[in-house]
């Protein structure tokens, strides 16, 4: 099983309700994946006060910070960074640390020293990534997903098959800047592909098959491919069952394996493009009655892009 | 005309709906049943044996109208996997698109899909008739044993793979034929069969002569008399 939900907004009118809409979609998909829930949400690209235009900050999503002293951690990171620009927002056992993009490496080194229990699970100008063991309603409440705003988001409810029920094996997987992927299905050539990608310099945190798919797309985009071209290449190089929903800083992609083993339904209106494993999860979206509903074809790449 | 019985799924459960419909006998004279707010819920109006008219007035989830045995069910929207699966008799009409495995293993009755059907439409068909206004996906009519599939649009890869005695009619392009499926002559009897089904489906304006006919070449192992003793 497993459930997937994705929402890519075309109009700013819904940006304030993105988190609430995604939370509603994921809740409906609890029956497809009660083991763990995760989501990635893409917010504004905001420069810190006083920074030059175009001088962006990076958001580092950290996990493993249950009970952390947020103000103390913020001071410790700020004290170690040139210019002292750091903000940290704690959400349950996750936190988002905002630092100048040029100081990402320095910030990562500091975190390893001052918060050794923390892992950086996503980084980018816009992505924030949260996941936890439990039903979607519980996990969404823990992170207050309903209050989050943004331009696009993807989420996943997992029924574990290929690896254990852990936070690490929950989706989405993020293997590159502002990139993430969710998956329904199972890959059969992930071990060989993981070895190939390791030789290409990618690092993997788990033995999970989905992380390999995410890493594969990161590798292809690092070679200069567009999201669309990377997904087309995946059709040749990935073997197994899959429905993928992928997000980048400005893009939203969907790919199904050539025999369309796993379910998918999409809705498009003037305001959004939405993806779900089942129509039930789309039924609560505004204007769904007038949306164009369609089932994405097997082995066909679908990509939507918004202006950066 | 009898007033419609309205069942609102924002109030009633799917179990309530199906229990009420399944309790109707084959001699029921209940008027039309209008099911509001289906919202993609699964297993709506399944196993109904009364000759009752049922309107599901929006998109439905998996197995809608499954095991239908005499009801006339209209789905005013899209249908997910397995619409009218294992239908025995009656009518299921989808006003939108249907997802995978529409009409799977259906023994009787008529399934009309006004839009497109996904992969494996009519898989293991056992005697029902299916008319699709649009196109069908890959592996349609896989191992279909009996019945008719009429496709007004195109057919995806491997149409009619390992077919038995079902007959397939396609008006548009066929991406590829499956193992042991071949084109057959389209004679007067075939045209009459297609015309009658189009008429029942409300698509009589489409010319039955514009379809091509496909069936089993009967060359697979189990068709060979020398292998009969193996069973």
Q: Percent range for helical residues of chain A?
A: 10-25%
Low-confidence stretches of chain B: none
Number of strands of chain B: 11
The name of the CATH architecture of the largest domain in chain A is: 4-Layer Sandwich
CATH architecture grouping of chain B: 3 Solenoid
Describe the sheet with the most strands of chain A: 7 strands, antiparallel
Keywords (chain A): Glutamine amidotransferase, Transferase
GO molecular function (chain A): transferase activity
InterPro entries (chain A): GATase_2_dom (IPR017932), Ntn_hydrolases_N (IPR029055)
Domain Glutamine amidotransferase type-2 (chain A): 2-308
Short description:
With 308 residues, chain A is α+β, with helices and mostly antiparallel strands. Chain A has helices spanning 18-28, 70-80, 104-114, 136-143, 190-199, 209-222, 227-237, and strands at 3-9, 36-42, 57-63, 87-91, 94-100, 119-124, 127-133, 152-158, 173-176, 179-187, 240-247, 251-256, 265-268, 272-276, 292-294, 302-305. Chain B: This is Glutamate synthase.
What does this structure look like?
The complex is a heterodimer of chains A (308) and B (231). Chain A folds into 2 domains: 3-44 and 127-305, Aminohydrolase, N-terminal nucleophile (Ntn) domain (Glutamine Phosphoribosylpyrophosphate, subunit 1, domain 1, 4-Layer Sandwich), CATH 3.60.20; 57-124, Alpha-Beta Plaits, CATH 3.30.70.3400. Chain A is 25% helix and 31% strand. Chain A is built from 7 helices and 16 strands. Chain A has helices at residues 18-28, 70-80, 104-114, 136-143, 190-199, 209-222, 227-237; strands at residues 3-9, 36-42, 57-63, 87-91, 94-100, 119-124, 127-133, 152-158, 173-176, 179-187, 240-247, 251-256, 265-268, 272-276, 292-294, 302-305. The longest helix of chain A has 14 residues, at 209-222. Chain A is globular, with a radius of gyration of 18 Å. Chain A starts with a strand and ends with a strand. Chain B is mainly beta and 231 residues long. Chain B has a single domain (5-230), classed as Pectate Lyase C-like. Chain B is built from 2 helices and 11 strands; from the N terminus they run βαβββββββββαβ. Chain B has helices at residues 14-22, 188-201; strands at residues 5-8, 33-36, 53-56, 69-75, 89-94, 110-113, 126-132, 146-151, 167-170, 181-184, 212-216. In chain B, strands 1-2-3-4-5-6-7-8-9-11-10 form an 11-stranded mixed beta sheet, covered by helices on one side. Chain B starts with a strand and ends in a 15-residue tail after the last strand. In chain B, 52% of the residues are buried. The chains are: A alpha+beta (308), B mainly beta (231).
């Amino acid at each position: 099983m497993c459930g997937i939900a994705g929402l890519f907004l075309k109009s700013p009118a819904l940006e304030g309700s993105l988190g609430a809409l995604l939370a509603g979609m994921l809740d409906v998909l609890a029956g497809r994946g009660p083991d763990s829930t995760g989501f990635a949400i893409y917010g504004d690209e905001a420069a810190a006060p006083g920074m030059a235009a175009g001088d962006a900050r990076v958001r580092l999503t950290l996990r493993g910070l249950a009970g952390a002293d947020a103000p103390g951690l913020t001071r410790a990171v700020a004290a170690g960074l040139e210019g002292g620009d750091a903000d940290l927002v704690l959400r349950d056992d996750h936190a988002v640390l905002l630092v100048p993009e040029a100081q990402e490496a320095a910030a990562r080194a500091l975190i390893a020293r001052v918060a050794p229990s923390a892992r950086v699970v996503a980084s980018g100008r816009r992505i924030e990534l949260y996941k936890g063991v439990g039903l979607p309603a519980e996990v969404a409440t823990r992170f207050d997903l309903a209050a989050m705003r943004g331009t696009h988001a993807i989420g996943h409810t997992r029924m574990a098959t290929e690896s254990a029920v852990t936070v690490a094996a929950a989706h989405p997987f993020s293997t590159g800047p502002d990139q993430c992927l969710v998956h329904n299905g199972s890959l059969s050539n992930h071990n060989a592909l993981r070895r190939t990608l390791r030789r290409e310099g990618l690092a993997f945190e788990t033995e999970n098959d989905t992380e390999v798919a995410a890493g594969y797309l990161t590798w292809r985009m690092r070679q200069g491919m567009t999201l669309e071209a990377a997904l087309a290449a995946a059709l040749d190089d990935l073997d197994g069952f899959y429905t993928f929903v992928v997000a980048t800083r400005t893009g939203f992609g969907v790919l199904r394996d050539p025999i369309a083993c796993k379910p998918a339904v999409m809705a498009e209106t003037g305001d959004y493009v939405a993806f779900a494993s089942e129509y039930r999860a789309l039924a609560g979206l505004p204007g769904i009655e007038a949306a164009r509903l369609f089932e994405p074809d097997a082995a066909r790449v679908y990509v939507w892009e918004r202006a950066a | 005309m009898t007033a419609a019985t309205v069942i609102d799924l924002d109030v009633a459960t799917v179990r309530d709906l199906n229990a009420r419909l399944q309790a109707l006998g084959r001699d029921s004279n209940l008027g039309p049943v209008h099911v509001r707010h289906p919202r993609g819920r699964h297993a709506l109006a399944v196993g109904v044996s009364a000759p009752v008219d049922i309107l599901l007035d929006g998109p439905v989830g998996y197995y809608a109208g499954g095991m239908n045995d005499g009801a006339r069910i209209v789905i005013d929207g899209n249908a997910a996997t397995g619409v009218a699966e294992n239908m025995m008799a009656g009518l299921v009409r989808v006003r939108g698109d249907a997802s995978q495995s529409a009409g799977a293993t259906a023994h009787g009755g008529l399934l009309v899909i006004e839009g497109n059907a996904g992969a494996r439409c009519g898989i293991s068909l056992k005697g029902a008739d299916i008319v699709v206004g649009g196109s069908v996906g890959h592996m349609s009519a896989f191992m279909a044993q009996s019945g008719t599939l009429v496709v007004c649009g195109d057919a995806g890869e491997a149409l009619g793979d390992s077919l038995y005695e079902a007959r397939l009619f396609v008006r548009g392009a066929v991406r590829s034929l499956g193992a042991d499926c071949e084109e057959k002559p389209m004679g007067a009897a075939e045209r009459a069969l297609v015309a009658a089904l189009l008429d029942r489906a409300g698509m009589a304006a489409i010319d039955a002569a514009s379809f091509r006919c496909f069936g089993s070449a009967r060359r697979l192992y189990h068709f060979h008399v020398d292998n009969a003793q193996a069973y």
